[in-house]
Amino acid sequence: MPVDHFDPLNKDTFQMRYMYNEVFFGGNGSPVFILVGGEWDIVPAWLLAGNMFQMASENNGYIMYTEHRYYGQSLPYQNFTTENLRFLNVDQALADLAYFIRDVVRTQERFANSKIILCGGSYAGNMVLWFKQRYPHLVVGVVASSAPILAKVDFTGYLEVVHEAYQLEGGDECIAIIRQGIEDTITAMQTEEGRKLIDKIYRLCSPPNYDNKYDLGHFSGLISWSFSISVQYGRPGTVLNVCNNFKNNTYGSTPMEQIGGYIAASRGLTTCWNVTYDDYVNIHTSNTNSRAWRYQTCTEYGYYQTAPKIGTVFDPLIWLDVDFYVGVCKRVFGPKFDEAFVYNAADRVNTVFGGLKPDVNNTLNVHGYIDPWRALGVYEEDLKESSPTYTVPRASHGFDMQSWHATDTIRISQIQQRVRTIVAGWLS
């Protein structure tokens, strides 16, 4: 794959990994389903189960799974210096897909007349929508799951949806416990005795510097990110179970103990938490997916989950602000990656791809209502008559891509079936 699709003088290439499963392929001209990878390592499991797997089964389709540049084993450079990361952006990644279709798919005689369907979730959901907009001649249609297509730096909406999820699932009693636990934590920060209690209850390896707002930002993140993980990756009933545990004092006897116990239990803590800002920054300093994705947030999307200001339980975590997140950009990539740079980068993405109004046809746009990322997607209206939107109560991030679960609601199963029916219509 070319490292730079837009400079013909740059002849550098890299190895782009992909996987495939041909078990259902019906022969020459049968459809090709391509699952688009995002900010992760691709794994074979997604070629062996899930709603796209079911689509391929029903339509005699060939399945492929592509890996995004700079993630997993698809590395233009082994060393993720700021200079080497300059080719990590969605424009290059979309071009990778176009070249993949041209040079890998279409060069095989059996696929010469095949219709191609793209599927993607989360950031890869953005990619498939934007691919249909930029390269409409290459694919018949796309399925975008939980796509946060609006780049936004100060993303308070994420935690607003997390709050709403706990309210919807657990009611006022659950919200009251969480609110009191966080407020008691903030109060405890003001005294030496309270700080020692925080160290104990939250299982901290060492206390944060209470005079350093960035340390307090990381500690605040330990709280907010733990609550959001249960929502974003939960199935129907996950959040309700957490709330029931709060009501039954499963995690502790006081609201603050409940929160500290919940964080440890839900995230499988085995030792203690490191919550200094240096600990947070260091996550993004090695050649890993975390560093690559941080670079994309600094140069394209923002997506920073900041504390709301509308009365949620997370409002008191004021140290979770744009400066906290952008500070990482400056520390790990250089001083030019400041707030002005990050805001301009997000504006550029919205200008190029249309923000919440992408110009697409033959797309399916699916969201779960309690998915925090739906706040940056189109979830209340169709993108176009030919591009319907489906938003499902009690469902969260990427629910429609997965296999059937015993906890699935009837509505979840109905939408998965509806997606398959529409895709079959595109192929007929």
Short description:
The chain is an alpha/beta fold.
Can you tell me the overall shape? globular
Strand content range? 5-15%
Share of residues in helices:
40-55%
Report the end-to-end length measured between terminal Cα atoms: 32 Å
The unreliable regions are none
Detailed description of the structure:
It holds the Pfam family Peptidase_S28. InterPro entries: AB_hydrolase_fold, Peptidase_S28, Ser_carbopepase_S28_SKS. Keywords: Glycoprotein, Hydrolase, Protease, Signal. GO terms for molecular function: dipeptidyl-peptidase activity; serine-type exopeptidase activity. By secondary structure, the protein is an alpha/beta fold. It has two domains: 18-150 and 355-427, Alpha/Beta hydrolase fold, catalytic domain (Rossmann fold); 153-348, Up-down Bundle (Four Helix Bundle (Hemerythrin (Met), subunit A)), CATH 1.20.120.980. Helices cover 43% and strands 10% of the residues. It has helices at residues 51-59, 90-105, 123-134, 157-188, 192-201, 213-232, 238-247, 255-266, 277-282, 289-301, 322-333, 339-353, 410-427, and strands at 18-21, 32-36, 62-66, 116-121, 141-145, 152-154, 302-304, 363-368, 389-392. The strands form two sheets. A seven-stranded mixed beta sheet has the order 1-3-2-4-5-8-9, with helices on both faces. The chain has a two-stranded parallel ribbon with strand order 6-7. Helix 3 (123-134) links the parallel strand 4 and strand 5.
